[in-house]
Write a structure and sequence with these properties.
- It contains 12 helices and 2 strands.
- It has 236 residues and is an all-alpha fold.
- The chain has 2 domains: 74 residues, no CATH class; 152 residues, no CATH class.
- The protein has a two-stranded antiparallel sheet.
- α4 crosses α6 and α7 runs parallel beside α10.
């Protein structure tokens, strides 16, 4: 993205290094008068975002809303995600599996909320950002937005429920094997003595619920096993 060749008015905005309210007006009027209409437009908007620091609130709203509208409602299947569309969005946003800025992460979450159907590959990708934050991955947008901690916090828990709200039925979490695998990996990385109580309850539900997916039988660790594993790893 750093080598992207910008046209007017984006080239002027990049020269300043930041985006203000007047710049948003210019982009609406001259760059995208009909909104984001194709993948090239999406690439251009994302490149501009990554090239500028400290965007204004108007830009943040424009970035999330315009890209969400394009991704969800203009790319087939319109209004929903399938695997191919999910892969396209992941490829657009991810740098070595990591979403690099909080605003791009908000775009991901908002698109998932607006769409009528979301495959578990996309929700698992969103959950995996917590794992990258705990691993202290470079340029991790989620790590930048969350309070620093080596355990799962209330902030993280709210994020998890935002991602998985579609798979809550009658108060019970019914996660897919792919989503469950990421939750287990997060749990193994987090400090078991400092996790928020709500996280421990969620993981106990994941481990003990009657689950419709046979793949859960392949999980190697119970919650207590994971806690012991983490403690032994730190002791070593």
């Amino acid at each position: 993205m750093s080598e992207y060749r910008f046209s007017f008015p984006a080239c002027l905005i990049v020269g300043k290094g930041h985006i203000d309210r007047e710049d948003v007006i210019l982009m609406r009027k001259y760059a995208f008068p009909d909104g984001i209409a194709c993948p090239d437009d999406a690439d251009a908007l994302l490149a501009l975002h990554r090239a500028c620091q400290n965007p204004c609130a108007e830009w943040e709203r424009y970035f999330v809303e315009s890209l969400t509208s394009f991704v969800v409602h203009e790319i087939s299947p319109k209004g929903a995600f399938n695997d191919a569309k999910a892969d396209w969005l992941i490829d657009l946003l991810a740098c070595d599996g990591v979403v690099p800025t909080p605003l791009e992460l908000e775009l991901l979450l908002h698109a998932m909320e607006v769409a009528t159907d979301v495959p578990d590959r996309l929700s698992a990708f969103a959950l995996d950002q917590i794992r990258y934050a705990l691993l202290a991955a470079d340029q991790c947008g989620y790590a930048e937005s969350r309070p620093p901690a080596d355990a799962v916090t209330l902030y993280d828990l709210a994020y998890v429920w935002r991602v998985l709200r579609r798979v809550v039925h009658h108060g019970q979490l019914v996660a897919s094997p792919r989503e469950t695998e990421v939750l287990v990996e997060i749990n193994m990385l987090a400090s078991p003595l400092h996790n928020h109580a709500g996280w421990n309850e969620l993981m106990a539900q994941v481990a003990t619920q009657t689950h419709p997916y046979d793949a859960l039988a392949s999980l190697r660790y119970s919650i207590s096993d994971q806690a012991r594993f983490c403690q032994e790893g730190r002791a070593a």
